[in-house]
Design a protein that fits this description.
The complex is a heteropentamer of chains A (119), B (239), C (84), D (493) and E (617). Chain B is mostly helical and 239 residues long. Chain B is built from nine helices and no strands. Chain E is 70% helix and 4% strand. Chain E has 617 residues and is mainly α. Classes of the chains: A mainly alpha (119), B mainly alpha (239), C mainly alpha (84), D mainly alpha (493), E mainly alpha (617). Chains in contact: A-B, A-C, A-D, A-E, B-C, B-D, B-E, D-E.
Chain lengths: 119, 239, 84, 493, 617
């Protein structure tokens, strides 16, 4: 039971990362690979927030009602994840723009055919 | 052949993760005891939580970490979004030839008026989110995203209204400039970049936290205009 | 409480596997947005409301929109896997 | 006193300002990157002497270093940021007339932000901030590689982006693992508390970081993106990418390995990886027909040599590596800029089309020859001084393992000599094909000749008087090697 | 006028000549000659001063030093002399051709770099000038397009390989003795406990061996010399190869010193004996390959390799007489080869680029002066008495015989026979025999080409009759390098070295000449023979001699041609071909498929994790 309580989040996020990597490694469609990268980003963000999570902690936001602070969760990973999510979106948007342009030029998104530049 | 190799590789990577996470500091329970043992000055998460409130008088500690303690990251972050919007524009530069959709797909009257009615409400929610970034959860990024979803609605819902890209670009760069100037004033006045030079006011009041709400407003406008710029670029025209 | 979190994580993993497995790109994009939705809820349970909101609005909302725009401009279905 | 933070803040402000300036007047916007980099170069050079004694620690948001993000403008940081500023300035001048088509407004901003990213990577003292500026650098180079929108550029950009994204996620996992174990993100703070933590978790997070930063630093298995990206990008961009961007990646690895982890067990592995990169790079370069792809592979080769020198962990070794970073940056930027206008003139990137360029573009060919000779390490040029320092450092270590690796590496430089001199022969000693029409408009404008000429003059003067740069190399090597001093400087006050 | 002044004038001269050349060709030619002649005088004046001074205090932590001791002076005067002659010769040779400016700049740069090598007092500046000489020579070799490019590339690849080896050896010395100034280095090495490491000596030998074309490393020389423009071939063959010799002498005797040198290498096989045998082989094989060459310059190139064999043999013997012989033969060979190459160059210039021996002939009547000088050069090359070649070969033979190396002496002797054969072939095919019609009204070479030939011819005969002039200088050098000095009178050697008095030889020759003249005077006047004499078998005897010389040594070639091909060259070319195949293979790593690239990233990560868990890292 104790394994479940403390490690379920890590299992979840690293499962996401591994699935994302598998998609990026194996799938031949460009959009599918970009989805894989998106999965990896989500997994990594989940992992960062999970590192900051304390057992029974509360959200690091003070309000008139909740004044006490010792049970609060570590706010730093949340700040990092905020940045990481937006980085993920930016990379994703650029990736999809490039995918559209690749489709314009080559008419296909199959990575096995997109080998114009090699050797 | 490719599948087997990648499965083998991922197996070893998974083993690496497992090897890493076995120890004490990871895992929710493990984290809790290890945090309690650790004194404040070693783990800065606890220090921000314990002293953050009276240093910046900003209720949302995450916001004070995002903008004050680690504000330089957010400056980098905003630059990245700016680069993404411009990069998208640069890459899709040559594709302006948009074919106007045929009659059949034009949105019905109800849909377009509904959207135009809903748009100001979404903007209001978005603006509320990033104005109250330092009090309640949420902030520049989340508010900007909501504003962008408003623009998305306009973009999908009603065809006629074309987003004024020059205004978006101006909003984008002006708000980015505002953020950097606020930080530079901190350097000029208080001797260190991103310093919270304004009085930080009472804790839960709207005008608390010194320059933090100002920066979050600038970020909100910037993220909103950039994400809608991205959407406008990507949805330039439907073939 | 933890049981519900475990359930969320399992749904997320299944959605991720679906996103990987679907041949129809639109289907896998929907599965992908389901993953971010689940992640957003898990963030809430991990006491990170800011991140939950960001993940929900950016991760689930805008990412899916951008994906669908991209798919509308390119091909919807994946080529067959046989030639690999 | 001018604070090093301006090195990042002012170009950033100028970058945000550029769209506004663009609205006002189209032509003024083209000079914005040059202005930003000129400012950067002046500030960096003025701060360098002061930083040679002790690194300048800059706080942000007014908190003492470990609390908030801080910049560590040490001798190494400022030396590299002045290199970034110098090459950025010269390539910006080159880009004024070179880039004509495409979304010209966006090019200027992206170009300035790329250099801001590189300067940020080199100056920052915080690990996550290093990752953020690393991302600024990478994403702007993805967009700029695909700037032309032609089939090759877009494909190269797409491949570069996918590998870069995977690399960045690995770095993020590494930072997550490290933050989980140590609880702080300031490099000096991590360094001071890393010693007391169990080994295997640290090593795996180091592995992730090396794999992640390695993608941008063109280490052997990870550099598959580089030949495509540098050959299909516009020449001014490949000049900056080759001259500056991959160096920032390698600096990140060096800083992580030496300062954050203080790891010594992985150094022999990095040395072997460096020599393998050198050999693979030079071999592939020899077999190329396309001039820019050849230069890209030769960049991989030289980065292998720099990594090998960094992995020596001796003071002269690292000062040799920094010296090679400077000399390779100058020479490779010169080569890419020179080929830019040669390709523009002949219309094709094939080496055989360069025949007889010696007569048609004398200044460009002369500068190309100076750059090629410097890269090969021939005496009167700066390449010789850096190669000499590295070989002296390797033999100084006296360990037969390193000396045999060096001997193998020197075979790489022989291959490099072969293919560069083959090109010089094509330039000067092959008759120009008469079929080529005598286009007069192809004559390189002043904004191209000035940077290329200046780089060539720099290469020769630093080659003849290595003392100019030599003074800063010693403290720069100590800045990287001496972990305790770094911690004491940052955490001390 | 210190060494630094000489170097500055040399390098500034090269630069200025390029600058002046941009304005007017005439001005540049005059300036080039003035600079070269000035250099010769400057060096001649500074004979005595052995001053050693630092000219660049802190270059990467080392002091660069120049010195002008006897050895340096001797080589410097040879370099500047031959350099000046080739500049004078190339006035006409290059006039009108394109890229003249570049030619003069590169030629003066190579001469300046060689002066730099010779005058440098520490190994780092030696190395710097060495590399400058290499790439400047590369530019000049590939000057005449076409096949010259491959020759240039082959030359430069081998010389870069050599300089990499030399850099390793040089910095190993710096790492162990942390100084590169030759005088201090020599003291420390000789006083150091252990012997001199063999691999360092081999690395030096590789570097210098490539430059002076020892047998396994010689393959670049035939192509480079035959493709380079003739005046530069003279410089290339005359003095550029001698830099390798200077390097050997400097390292073997200047730095390592005689006592230590004798122990270098395995106890049963010393380094210097290997060097001797290499020298012997280098005498034999190239000389007989030279026989079979049809192209005049290629013949001379192979003969250069052969003569270098003599010099290496003399150095390898490690005796004072041997070293004196080597130094004197270096000087002689520089003068012979300069003369012969310039003569071939003159013929090539006049006949519009023809150097194929089968198509030339009978030029003795059209170009008598060139023939006379070429004859003197050829005789000197063979080593006929009354020419300086005789004295140097006599020294080498003497030391081989007194030291008891019968087989080496035999090899030297056979080498001389080969020399006689190919010199005769060269002179006969070019100057004797039937004059082809198209050269019937060929006028003589311009004076600016004949002057260098005459100067060289004069030097050969002068040093042949009065060998004391160079030998007194060489004796001093041998003394400074740790041997007992060789005393020589003006006309030969004292009794303790073995009686040689060129005066008696002159007297003997004069006597024989007198007898021949007298006999011809007294004997019957040769009576003209009528046309239908049996000699012409009834047919009308043609006006001139009608023995054309085509495929001169054809029977010899048919017999030995199969064996005497350049095996080493074929081996190198096939190795290069295989290497190119490997490079093409390595290129295939970048398959173009992004998924494979991502797999490479994950593969490195897994390797690191696996290596850690397995305990390697």
């Amino acid at each position: 039971m104790n394994f479940l309580t403390s490690y379920i989040h890590y299992v979840g996020c690293f499962a996401l990362v591994l699935i994302g990597l598998y998609v990026a490694l194996v799938k031949s469609n460009l959009i599918k690979v970009i989805i894989g990268i998106n999965l990896i980003d989500t997994g990594v963000n989940l992992f960062l927030v999970a590192t900051g999570y304390l057992g029974g902690g509360t959200a690091p936001i003070f309000s008139k009602a909740a004044e006490q602070s010792q049970e609060m969760v570590d706010p730093v990973p949340q700040a990092l994840v905020l940045t990481a999510i937006v980085i993920g979106v930016s990379v994703l948007a650029l990736a999809l723009a490039l995918a559209i342009k690749v489709y314009d030029h080559n008419g296909t998104l199959d990575l096995r055919k997109l080998k114009g530049l090699k050797w | 052949m490719r599948k087997q190799i990648s499965l083998l590789l991922l197996l070893i990577v998974a083993a690496g993760f497992a090897l890493c996470l076995a120890g004490a500091p990871f895992g929710a329970e493990g984290a809790r005891e290890s945090r309690r043992l650790v004194k404040d000055n070693v783990n800065y998460g606890r220090r921000y939580v314990s002293k953050g409130l009276d240093e910046n008088r900003c209720a949302n500690i995450v916001t004070s970490v995002v903008l004050n303690y680690r504000g330089f990251d957010t400056l980098g972050e905003v630059t990245i979004l700016f680069i993404a919007a411009l990069g998208l524009g640069a890459v899709l530069y040559g594709r302006r030839a948009g074919a106007s959709p045929d009659e059949a797909q034009r949105p019905s009257l109800i849909l377009s008026t509904g959207c135009r009615l809903l748009f100001p409400l979404i903007m209001l929610v978005g603006i509320y989110i990033f104005i109250h970034g330092h009090l309640s959860p949420g902030g520049g990024f989340q508010g900007g995203a909501v504003i962008a979803s408003g623009f998305l609605l306009i973009c999908l819902g009603c065809r006629k209204k074309k987003l004024n890209s020059v205004a978006l670009g101006a909003a984008e760069s002006l708000s980015g400039l505002a953020f950097v100037l606020l930080a530079l004033i901190g350097l000029a006045v208080g001797g260190s970049f991103l310093l919270n030079f304004l009085p930080t006011g009472k804790v839960y009041a709207l005008f608390s936290g010194g320059i933090i709400p100002l920066i979050y407003i600038a970020i909100g406008v910037k993220v909103g205009s950039e994400l809608s710029g991205i959407i406008d670029n990507l949805s330039g025209e439907v073939r | 409480m933890i049981v519900f979190q475990t359930f969320l994580v399992l749904v997320m993993i299944v959605a991720a596997l679906a996103a990987a497995g679907f041949r129809d790109l639109l289907g896998s994009v929907i599965a992908c947005s389901l993953v971010s939705l689940m992640a957003s809820i898990i963030f809430y349970f991990l006491q990170a409301p800011d991140v939950a909101m960001a993940e929900a609005s950016i991760g689930a909302g805008l990412t899916t929109a951008i994906f669908i725009f991209a798919i509308s401009k390119t091909k919807r279905h994946e080529e067959n896997e046989k030639t690999d | 006193m001018v604070s090093p933070i301006l090195l990042i803040a002012v170009p950033l402000a100028l970058a945000f300002l550029t769209p506004m300036v663009g609205l006002a007047s189209k032509s003024a916007r083209r000079y914005m990157p040059a202005i930003a980099m000129l400012f950067n170069f002046i500030v960096a050079m003025s701060l360098l002497p002061k930083a040679l004694e002790a690194p300048i620690i800059v706080r942000t948001a007014g908190w003492a270093p470990p609390l908030s993000i801080h910049l560590v403008a040490g001798p190494l940081g400022l030396l590299l940021s002045s290199l970034v500023a110098l090459i950025g300035l010269l390539v910006a001048i080159y880009g004024i007339d070179y880039i004509r088509e495409g979304a010209r407004a966006r090019y200027d901003v992206l170009y300035t932000l790329l250099l801001v990213g590189a300067t940020g990577v080199v100056l920052t003292g915080d690990l996550f901030n290093l990752f953020v500026f690393f991302e600024v650098l990478c994403i702007s180079s993805y967009a700029l590689v695909a700037y032309r929108g032609d089939s090759a550029g877009v494909e190269a950009g797409m491949k570069y982006l996918i590998q870069g994204a995977i690399g960045s996620s690995l770095v993020l996992i590494g930072i997550g693992l490290l933050y989980g174990t140590v609880g702080t993100l300031s490099m000096a703070d991590i360094a001071s508390s890393v010693g007391s933590v169990a080994g295997s978790r640290l090593f795996i997070s180091l592995a992730f970081m090396i794999a992640g930063f390695g993608v941008e630093a063109a280490i052997f298995p990870l550099n598959a993106w580089l030949p495509d990206a540098h050959s299909s990008a516009p020449s001014s961009i490949s000049a900056v990418l080759s001259g500056v961007a991959i160096k920032a990646g390698l600096y990140a690895i060096a800083r992580v390995v030496y300062t954050v982890y203080g790891a010594s067990s992985i150094l022999p592995f990095l040395a072997v990886l460096g020599v393998v990169t050198l050999l693979v790079g030079e071999m592939c370069a020899f077999a190329q027909e396309d001039i820019k792809r050849l230069l890209a592979f030769s960049s991989i080769g030289q980065m292998g040599l720099i990594l090998f020198a960094l992995a020596l962990s001796s003071a002269t070794g690292i000062s040799g590596a920094v010296f090679l970073i400077i000399s390779h940056g100058l020479a490779k930027a010169l080569l890419f800029l020179a080929t830019g206008y040669m390709i523009y003139r002949t219309g094709s990137r094939d080496i055989s089309s360069l025949a007889g360029m010696g007569k048609r573009m004398p200044i460009m060919s002369l500068c190309f020859t100076v750059g090629a000779f410097s890269l090969m390490g021939l005496p009167p040029f700066v390449g010789f001084a850096s190669k000499f320092t590295i070989v002296r450092a390797v033999l100084g270590t006296g360990s037969t393992f390193f000396i045999t690796l060096l001997a193998i590496g020197l075979i790489g430089t022989v291959i490099e000599g072969a293919y560069f001199l083959r090109i010089v022969q094509w330039l000067y000693f092959k008759p120009a094909p008469e079929a080529m029409p005598e286009q007069t408009e192809g004559r390189a404008p002043l904004t191209a000749l000035v940077p290329v000429g200046l780089l060539a003059v720099l290469i020769v003067t630093i080659g003849l008087l290595p003392g100019i740069v030599g003074r800063a190399l010693g403290p720069a090597a100590d800045d990287l090697l001496d972990r305790a001093a770094y911690i004491q400087h940052v955490m001390g006050d | 006028m210190s060494a630094q002044g000489i170097l500055i004038t040399a390098f500034a001269g090269a630069g200025l000549s390029y600058a002046l050349g941009l304005t007017s060709a005439r001005l540049r030619e005059v300036f080039a000659i003035v600079v070269s002649v000035l250099l010769v005088c400057l060096i001649a004046i500074t004979h005595g001063q052995g001053a050693e001074h630092v000219y660049y205090p802190d270059f990467l932590g080392l002091d660069l030093v120049l010195r002008m001791d006897a050895l340096a002076w001797f080589f410097a005067i040879t370099v500047s002399m031959v350099g000046c002659l080739s500049v004078i010769f190339s006035l006409h040779y290059v006039r009108g051709k394109e890229k003249e400016n570049f030619y003069y700049f590169a030629l003066l740069l190579v001469n300046a770099a060689m002066l730099g090598i010779v005058l440098s007092g520490d190994l780092l500046s030696f190395f710097i000038f060495w590399e400058i000489m290499s790439w400047a020579a590369f530019l000049l070799i590939s000057y005449k397009r076409g096949r010259a490019l491959d020759a240039g590339l082959k030359y430069v690849i081998m010389s870069i390989l050599g300089s990499c080896a030399m850099l390793l050896a040089l910095l190993y010395l710096y790492a162990n003795y942390n100084t590169l100034v030759i005088s201090d280095l020599a003291q420390q090495i000789r006083s150091a406990a252990g012997g001199f490491p063999l691999w360092v000596m081999l690395a030096f030998a590789l570097g210098f061996g490539i430059k002076c074309a020892l047998i396994p490393l010689h393959t670049w020389l035939p192509d480079a010399h035959s493709e380079a423009p003739s005046p530069f071939s003279a410089v290339l063959s005359g003095i550029l190869i001698k830099m390798g010799i200077y390097g050997f002498i400097l390292v073997m005797y200047g730095v390592v010193g005689l006592k230590l040198l004798l122990e270098v290498g395995a106890p049963w096989l010393h380094f210097h004996t290997v060097l001797c045998w290499l020298g012997a082989i280098t005498i034999l094989i190239p000389t007989f390959i030279a026989l079979l060459q049809d192209d005049a310059k290629r013949l001379l190139a192979w003969s250069s390799i052969g003569q270098i064999g003599y010099i290496m043999l003399a150095i390898g013997v490690a005796t004072s007489l041997g070293l004196a012989g080597a130094l004197f033969h270096t000087l002689n060979h520089a003068v012979f080869k300069a003369l012969l190459f310039l003569a071939v160059g003159a013929v090539e210039y006049k006949t519009g680029g023809v150097r194929d021996l089968n198509r030339l002939g009978g030029l003795i009547r059209r170009m008598p002066v060139t023939f006379a000088c070429a004859l003197i050069g050829g005789l000197g090359l063979i080593g006929v008495p009354l020419t300086s070649g005789f004295v140097s070969k006599w020294l080498i033979y003497k030391t081989l015989i007194t030291e008891g190396h019968p087989f080496l002496a035999l090899a030297a002797l056979v080498g001389t026979w080969g020399a006689i054969l190919y010199v005769y072939k060269l002179l006969h095919n070019m100057f004797l025999g039937q004059l082809p019609e198209k050269y019937a009204n060929l006028e003589a070479a311009p004076f600016s080409m004949q002057l260098p030939l005459m100067i060289c011819g004069f030097i050969i005969v002068l040093f042949g009759i009065l060998p004391g002039i160079p030998l007194s200088v060489i004796g001093g050098i041998v003394g400074t390098l740790g041997f007992e000095p060789v005393t020589a009178t003006l006309t030969g050697f004292g009794p303790q070295i073995g009686p040689l008095n060129t005066l008696n030889l002159c007297a003997a020759f004069a006597g024989v000449l007198l007898v021949i003249v007298a006999f011809r005077g007294i004997a019957a006047r040769p009576k003209p023979v009528s046309q239908d004499d049996s000699y012409a078998a009834g047919a009308a005897a043609p006006a001139g001699k009608y023995h054309h010389t085509v495929r001169f040594y054809d029977p010899l070639e048919r017999m030995t041609g199969g064996y005497l091909r350049d095996w080493v060259d074929q081996f190198y070319l096939s190795a290069a071909g295989k290497a190119k195949g490997v490079f093409n293979g390595v290129r295939r790593i970048y398959t173009g498929d992004v998924r494979t690239y991502v797999m490479y990233i994950v593969a490195l990560l897994t390797f690191l994790i696996f290596a850690h868990t397995a305990g390697w890292l």
